[in-house]
Amino acid sequence: MKKTKPEIDQLRTEYQREDFGEMVRGKYAKRCKDASNVVVISPDVQKAFPNAQAVNDALRGLLELAQATGLTPRSTRTTRKRVAG
User: What's the pLDDT band for 40 if we cut at 50, 70, 90?
Assistant: First the structure.
């Protein structure tokens, strides 16, 4: 078993802490979350869908049913223009 040198948590002498500016934990977390399309489902729902393909198939079936019954997603509706009267 190799012996490891203890890590020293210090900056080199040519660097100063002030040179790095303010450090913020999780600085880009919101941007990453907004750019992500990951959806977390509840454990009880997860048991019914073993993989992503099963989830996608179920959602596509639901969309087809909604379209067949006249229910459409809000994103496809057109907005009505108001007429001045």
Answer: confident
